[in-house]
Amino acid sequence: MLVVMSQHATPEEIDAVIAAIEGKGYMARPIPGGERVAIGVLHNKGAVDASHFLGLPGVKDVIPVTRPYKLVSREFQPEDTVIQVGDVLIGDEHLTLIAGPCAVESKAQCLNIAKKVKRSGAHLFRGGAFKPRTSPYSFQGLGEEGLKILAQVRETTGLPVITEALDTETFGLVEDYTDVIQIGARNMQNFSLLRRAGRSQKPVLIKRGMAATIEEWLMAAEYVLEGGNTQVILCERGVRTFAHHSRNTLDVSAVAAVRKESHLPVIVDPSHAAGRRDQVIPLSRAAVAVGAHGLMVEVHHNPDEALSDGAQSLYPEQFEILCQEIHAIFDVFHPSHPVKPSAT
Ligand code: PEP
Ligand code: MN
Are 202 and 179 in contact (CB under 8 A)? Predict the structure, then answer.
C-alpha cells in the first residue's frame, strides 16, 4: 500500500505517518517524488486496512498496490528513475551506450578497445574480471588484476566502468574498483548476492535470467531496492528458446513490458542475445526503437583471438556504425532531444 501525503504536508506529519505504519508492525519507506511525498507500506502479510492512515493529518490518499513487486513498480513511483554514474545519466530520456570486451584480458587490450569505443560514443566501458563460464576449463577472468586494469582504463579514458560480481565473497572487492556492479544472468536469483547488492552504494545492473519471467526479474530488482539501494538498471540479454539461429532470443517486448511496469532504466545486451556478430547491429536498432534506455555491446579489436565470446564481439569499426545508426533511430522518437545523449 502507498500512503500519499498532501503537497503541503509538514515533516512532522510525515514522521507521524511513518510512526503509525511502524506501530502496526510494517516497514515504512518514504518515496521521494517530483510532485508528491508518498510512503510505501512494506512487509505486510495480507491486505492493510487503509482506515488506519486515511484520517491522519497531511494524508491525501491511500492507494492499494496490486503488484507483487512494490518499490520497483510505477504504482510506487510513477516517474522514471535516472541513475548518475560520473557524468553519465541512465534512464528516462537518455540513451546510454556501454561497450567493451567480454573479458578483461590485458591492459593493452582494454585500453585499445576503450579508446576506440569512446571515440565512437560509448559512455561506459565494460569488461569481465570474474567470468561466469559454463566450463571450468574455460578462461575464468583475471580476477583482481582485471579490476586494476579497469581502474586504469577509467583513469586514462575518463570512461566509468562496469564489471560483474560473481559471488558474495568477491563482491566487496569488485565494489571497491568499479563504478557499476553487474549481476549476471546466471545469478539473477542468487538472493544472497542480491541482498549484498542492496547494501551497496554503487549502481547495480541486473541481467535477466535466461529463463526468467518479467515478474521474477522485477522481483530480483525488488531485493536490491528493499535492501536500500535504489540505483538499479535492468538488462535484457535474451532468453533461451528453441531457436538455433541465435545463441538466445532477444525478447524485445520485455523492454516495453518493463517500461510500463517499472520506473527503472532498462537496457539491452544484443551481444549475448545474438551470440553472433552479424545480428548485433540489427538487434541494437530494434532495441532502441522499442524504447531501451541504452545498450551494452561486446567489442573486441581482435575477436578471433578473444579469450571469450569472440564470435559475438563487434569490430570497433562496426561499433562506430552501430552508434551512428542507433542515434538516427533515437532521434526519430526524440526529435527535440540533444544529439549527444546521456552526457549531463
Ligand atoms: C557478460 O555480460 O559478460 C555475461 C556473462 O552476460 P550474461 O550474464 O548475460 O550471460
Ligand atoms: Mn560475454
Answer: yes
pTM tops 0.85, yes or no = yes
132 lines ligand 1 (CB under 6 A): yes
- Cell, residue 231: 540505483
pLDDT digits (tens, 9 = 90+) for 19-36: 999 999 999 999 877 777
- Residue closest via CA to ligand 1's atom 10 equals 185
* List of long-range contacts for 182-189, beta carbons under 8 Å, 24+ apart: 182/126, 182/207, 182/235, 183/207, 183/220, 184/132, 185/209, 185/210, 185/237, 185/272, 186/132, 186/210, 187/132, 188/212, 188/216, 188/217, 188/220, 189/216, 189/220
pLDDT digits (tens, 9 = 90+) for 279-317: 999 999 999 999 999 999 999 999 999 999 999 999 999
CB 301 less than 6 A from any atom of ligand 1: no
Residues 200-248: pLDDT tens digits? Answer: 999 999 999 999 999 999 999 999 999 999 999 999 999 999 999 999 9
C-alpha cell at 194: 542480491
Contact (CB, 8 A) for 171 and 192: no
Ligand 2 centroid distance, CA of 289 (Å):
24
330-340 pLDDT, tens per residue?
999 988 775 55
CA of 339 to the centre of ligand 1 (A): 29
Answer yes or no: is the C-beta of 207 below 6 A from any ligand 1 atom. Answer: yes
